[in-house]
Amino acid sequence: MRTVGMAEEIKNWIEETLLSEKAKEKLLEESLKIYEKIKDFPYLEEDKAKAALFLACDKYLCAVPRKVPKPKVKILNRAREKTGIGNIEAIERVDSMCKLINRYENGIPETAKEIISKYKENCPIDYHGKTPSGTAIAAIYIASILCNEHIPQGELAKQLGASIPMIRNRYKDILEKVDIDILL
User: Fold this and answer.
1) 77 in the same domain as 115
2) pTM of the full predicted structure?
3) Residues 142-181: pLDDT tens digits?
4) What percentage of the chain's residues is helix, strand, coil (to nearest 5)?
């Protein structure tokens, strides 16, 4: 497909997100800039478009990378090198995720960041072996309980594009490694 066709494809993927129209426009604009930088890579156009959109999400710390098509790791890594957009840590995703689900008050973001920091400090191998989005979502789940604003796993899964088993498994792992006791 030509760049015009990829722009339409990227736009369709972005439309699936819960972002505001202004955010969608900005994400599309940035995705196309990134796509231009990597368009000569010897990969399928669709794969390059996925990588461009994923990197645009990372650049703007938007909370939707799990809602957009995941690019192949090889292409993503090569695109990261070419664009200079590095991996985004879990702690950096918390604010945008909390804003997206309208849970930015009552201490949830701050508590989630504290949990992530302790998890990273206590278990760096586990921390770095997990997806940043999944770790952030699980920490938000735990924080919501600790802050008496319980957000059901199903709600987080739906709004942030995660699976309930991933949230359940990751939050249990974090609780164990960070030594937090909560009553469910």
Assistant:
1) no
2) 0.75
3) 999 999 999 999 988 888 878 899 999 999 999 999 888 7
4) 70, 0, 30
